[in-house]
Design brief:
The complex is a heterodimer.
Chain A lengths: L1 E7 L2 E7 L5 H8 L18 E4 L2 E4 L12 E3 L1 H10 L7 H8 L9 H14 L5 H7 L11 H14 L8 H4 L4 H21 L4
Parallel strand pairs in A: 1-5
Antiparallel strand pairs in A: 1-2, 3-4, 3-5
Helix pairs in contact in A: 3-6
Chain B lengths: L13 H5 L15 E7 L5 E8 L9 E3 L24 E2 L5 E7 L2 H10 E7 L12 E9 L2 H6 L7 E9 L11 E5 L7 E5 L4 H12 L6 E5 L12 H16 L3 E4 L2 H7 L6 E9 L5 E13 L5 H10 L9 E10 L13 H19 L3 H8 L19 H12 L16 E13 L6 H5 L2 E6 L5 E4 L9 H13 L6 E3 L18 H20 L7 H10 L5 E5 L8 E2 L4 E2 L5 E13 L5 E11 L6 H20 L5 E2 L2 E2 L17 E7 L16 H4 L1 H13 L5 E2 L3 H16 L1
Parallel strand pairs in B: 1-12, 8-28, 10-11, 14-15, 18-19, 24-27
Antiparallel strand pairs in B: 1-5, 2-4, 2-6, 3-5, 7-15, 8-13, 9-10, 9-12, 13-14, 16-23, 17-18, 17-20, 21-22, 23-24, 25-26
């Protein structure tokens, strides 16, 4: 047993835990932060992904003692963090996941969304290939992943101020010419942005 | 007001899910709860002689449950009473539960499980389904005269083709493992179990038998559930009984949450299958006769196998017209871990076989696979293998047209020689399939599923159903149907938590039935309620409903499902209307085979699906893409094998499912041919996308490299074997 001093979601917290405990165990069983999920406890599924100093780590493979004095962000902290930095309501990634049908059972989502947040922090305008790569450590069995990619793209589009490419179900309620124009605008904007950044 | 049906309704549980606030079973805080674990058999078959306890083991620190501690019957109640809750003497499979332990903490539990060793005299197990002598269920479906058609084939200048097809098991792999928390009986003897589950009333039924109590004394509450896909249809009853027995013995709550190893090792998976086809076809590619033999490995106990076999057999002849059809099916007992429900429920296995056979027919007759399917497809007025005359909502021609238009599959030169650039060969493969919505045969009539709605004091309407939200969107679906039917806003509707103490038994959340069957009852209930509430429909619903409640109006409406009158089924002869209606679909897979490693990459997956009406198009697309990816995974990379009756894949690094990098680009085309008896014309969609992916991918491999594979998953090793045996055959 030792007393750990952790910085979780902006707060400094003390937790007494056996020294072999993982970050996931401390989060879930000592701090009551159950948003981080345990899908496999062997680092295979990604459901426990949290951010440590902004980078995604698997909480089930990380000793809690190894992240003392570092900034840990869990799913519970994503919205407060966004609000603190001047945002309104949930993080755009969270809002987009909710809107795009990216979440079904929801069990992989906390980890998935933190991986997506980490990607966008590093690369605010990723390509579809970069999104796929960044989320490849997070397993989802419900969605087929498309709606997850679209959610990340929606979060990107919104944060850079363009309308997202509409999906068929949204197009049904949109005027077709309007939807087409929006899709073209978004695509052109994204391509331009990538060109400026010297990718593609 | 915007349209709720066909539009987009926010998931009521969405915000909690994206902010990490949803409570799944492992997140539930229960004061004073102990942890439960299971001592299991380490052989596939044997006789239990007793237990050895390590000398240092302190029995007073834990609570132990053996079969003698079961107050009711030692029976895992489902279809047949052959599975014990704890094996008392006869052991029938690896991992069979023998004894239960509860401990105050994880370390004590782990030590206890390590300290208790069962003493077992091993017996030789039966692990090859072809050698099993014990059939759990047999079915014969017969139409016309298959033998006469085969005898006359030569004289009539018909072609006779034979093929044998194998499909391996598959793990559901919900990301949240199985788990329940049970509370000890209260002073009235009531047991409460909360858990991750699809079918609360199934669990209640199991507890009633296990404890010898009345249904009112067994209360089951569904927690937020992290995926099911059939995997949480029957197995949660096992976890629930075990946890509840421990809670009773320990006189405190017991939490039993499986870790991934235990979940992979002992929970039921898709039935392995062997399907034989003998097909007679004329030179124009018209199907003359189909003789089909289906064999499924049921594993050690019956579980749901008879029903899986039934659905598998009914779908075995595919969505094709054929006057002479015979389907003989058998599911046999082996000493494998029992196989069970998984999305598709027997149909993916038989669909793989018929679709592979259709590709053989295409090659043998020189008819294009698309044209062949188009020529033989069922249309309105045609009869299926069970003699069901298709009356309406048949989207066969439409789904084929949609994939053809999208992919050009109808003009694609199938298996034509082509360049392999950069060491890779590309291919396109087609599958065409249908899936019956709702329970098979008289199932829905026997089940009599009910749904209730209730006007609350503030004018909102509560929907009470046993149907569970497991990610597929039950909550949003019920909101859309209710709001649309009553002409109110979705904010005026609340969906009750499935809790057997409060919600009626709507039947299980399985069989692509929640939207069509339960949703159908819901629309009827809403119609009745709207008539009762009355008033000027231009005024907001909540005002009118509040006034109705204030003047003492009866705002409670219960509707029980009854099949449409023209749906007639005969269980004895297996003839008639097997399902009230079918969903229809066609898939085109575009793949690339690496010619060195023989790895397959699915680049694009186009699927056209007739769902009747998409109540929530975004949810329907989610079902179609998610189901299709499970099918694609099964087609070429999800390997599940056993050795000595034990699953070899014991963690997610070996029991693999597709990642973001394995997922193809999806083109989903929703075709809506309305079904007159469905809510707003809707049929089922849950299982359908699981059926066609495997044959489409394997056909695309054949198109790319010319090898005719007859088994899934089509791993590089299997492709290599097939290529080698093909080249051997050419040499001889």
């Amino acid at each position: 047993m030792r007393t750990l001093s952790l910085k979780v979601n902006g707060d400094t917290v003390q937790a007494a835990a056996p020294s072999h405990w993982t970050l996931l165990e401390v989060l879930r069983y000592k701090l009551g932060l159950t948003g981080s999920k345990q899908g496999c406890d062997k680092g295979d599924c990604g459901a426990c992904t949290v951010l440590v100093d902004g980078r995604p780590v698997l909480a089930c493979l990380t000793l809690a003692g190894a992240v003392e004095e570092r900034e840990v962000t869990t799913i519970e902290g994503l919205m407060p963090l966004h609000v603190k930095s001047g945002g309104d309501g949930p993080d755009p990634v969270q809002a987009a996941f909710d809107r795009c049908g990216a979440l079904q059972c929801g069990f992989c989502q906390p980890g998935m969304m933190l991986s997506a947040r980490a990607l966008l922090n590093k690369n605010p305008c990723p390509t579809r290939a970069e999104i796929r790569e960044a989320l490849s450590g997070n397993l989802c069995r419900c969605t087929g992943y498309t709606q997850i990619f679209e959610a990340v793209e929606l979060a990107v589009a919104e944060s850079i101020g363009v309308a997202p490419a509409p999906r068929s179900w949204e197009a049904q309620r949109m005027d077709p010419s309007e939807a087409q124009a929006a899709a073209k605008r978004a695509a052109a904007h994204l391509a331009e942005r990538r060109k400026q950044e010297g990718r593609e | 007001m915007q349209a709720h049906v066909g539009g987009r309704v926010e998931r009521p549980e969405g915000r909690a899910k994206v902010t990490g606030k949803s409570v799944y079973i492992a997140d539930l805080k229960v004061e004073g709860a102990w942890l439960g674990g299971t001592v299991r058999s380490d052989v596939a078959r044997g006789t239990l002689r007793g237990f050895d306890f390590a000398p240092e083991f302190d029995r007073t620190r834990v609570v132990i449950v053996t079969p003698t501690d079961i107050p009711g019957e030692n029976v895992q109640a489902l279809i047949v009473d052959d599975q014990p809750i704890l094996a008392a003497e006869r052991i029938e499979h690896w991992g069979e539960p023998l004894l239960l332990v509860a401990a105050p903490d994880a370390r004590t539990l782990e030590a206890a499980l390590a300290a208790i060793r069962p003493r077992i005299d091993p017996l030789p197990p039966v692990l090859d389904m072809e050698l099993s002598k014990h059939a759990q269920k047999q079915i014969t479906i017969e139409k016309g005269d298959v033998d006469a058609a085969i005898r006359a084939a030569k004289k009539n200048g018909h072609i006779v083709l034979e093929g044998t097809y194998h499909t391996d098991s598959q793990e559901q792999l919900y990301i949240e493992p199985q788990g329940c928390v049970a509370f000890p009986p209260d002073k009235d003897g009531t047991i409460v179990v909360k858990g991750s589950l699809q079918c609360p009333h199934y669990v209640r039924k199991a507890l009633v038998r296990c404890f010898g109590v009345t249904p009112g004394q067994a209360r089951v509450v569904q927690m937020e559930t992290g995926g099911g896909f059939g995997g949480k249809e029957e197995y949660p009853s096992v976890v629930a009984c075990h946890a509840a027995l421990l809670a009773r013995a320990a006189r405190r709550p017991v939490s039993m949450i499986y870790d991934r190893h235990e979940d992979l090792a002992v929970t039921p998976k898709r039935h392995p299958a062997r399907v034989r086809h003998k097909t007679v076809v004329d030179k124009h590619g018209r199907l003359i006769a189909m003789d089909i033999d289906v064999l499924l490995d049921g594993g050690a106990y019956t579980t749901l196998s008879p029903v899986v076999l039934s659905r598998g057999c009914i779908h075995a002849a595919g969505p094709y017209r054929c006057e002479n059809t015979r389907i003989r099916g058998r599911v046999v007992a082996t000493n494998h871990v029992p196989y069970g429900a998984f999305r598709g429920f027997g149909a993916p296995q038989t669909c793989f076989a018929i679709e592979r056979m259709m590709d053989r027919v295409a090659r043998a007759t020189g008819i294009h696979p698309f044209a062949l399917r188009h020529k033989n497809m069922l249309r309105v007025g045609d009869s299926t293998a069970t003699g069901q005359i298709l009356k309406d909502s048949v989207g066969s021609a439409e789904v084929l047209a949609a994939v053809a238009e999208k992919t050009g599959i109808d003009k694609h030169g199938w298996c034509a020689p082509r360049d392999a650039r950069a060491g890779k060969a590309r291919g396109l493969g087609l599958s065409f399939f249908y899936h019956g919505a709702g329970f098979t045969g008289s199932g829905e009539e026997m089940l009599k599923g009910r749904v209730r709605i209730d006007v609350l004091a503030d004018g909102r309407v509560e929907v009470l159903a046993g149907s569970t939200e497991i990610g597929q969107g039950t909550n949003a679906l019920f909101l859309a149907i209710t709001a649309e039917s009553l002409g109110c806003e979705t904010a005026d509707v609340v969906v009750a938590t499935p809790d057997t103490a409060h919600v009626p038994d709507s039947g299980p959340t399985v069989a692509s039935r929640t939207c069509m069957v339960v949703g159908g009852c819901l629309t009827k209930a809403c119609r009745e309620l709207a008539a009762r509430v009355g008033g000027d429909v231009k005024r907001p619903w909540r005002e009118r409903a509040r006034e109705f409640a204030q003047r003492g109006g009866d705002g409670q409406v219960t509707v029980q499902y009854s099949s449409p009158k023209d749906v007639v089924w005969d269980d004895d002869t297996y003839t008639g209307d097997a399902y009230p209606v079918f969903g229809w679909a066609a898939d085109v897979a575009e793949i690339e085979v690496d010619l060195v490693t023989l790895e397959v990459e699915v680049k694009r997956f186009s699927t056209a699906v007739d769902v009747g009406k998409a109540i929530q198009p975004a949810l329907v697309e989610g079902q179609i893409e998610g189901g299709s990816l499970q099918a694609v995974g099964w087609a070429h990379l999800e390997v599940v094998t056993t050795r000595a009756g034990k699953f070899e894949q014991d963690r997610l690094a070996t029991c693999i499912i597709p990642t973001t990098l394995d997922a193809p680009k999806f083109d989903v085309m929703l075709v809506e041919i309305p079904y007159a008896h469905g809510p707003f014309g809707a049929k089922g969609v849950g299982e359908l996308p699981m059926d066609g992916g495997a044959p489409a991918v394997v056909a695309a491999i054949e198109d790319a490299i010319g090898v005719h594979l007859t088994r899934v998953p089509a791993t590089p090793e299997r492709i290599m074997e097939a290529l080698e045996s093909a080249s051997q055959a050419r040499k001889q």
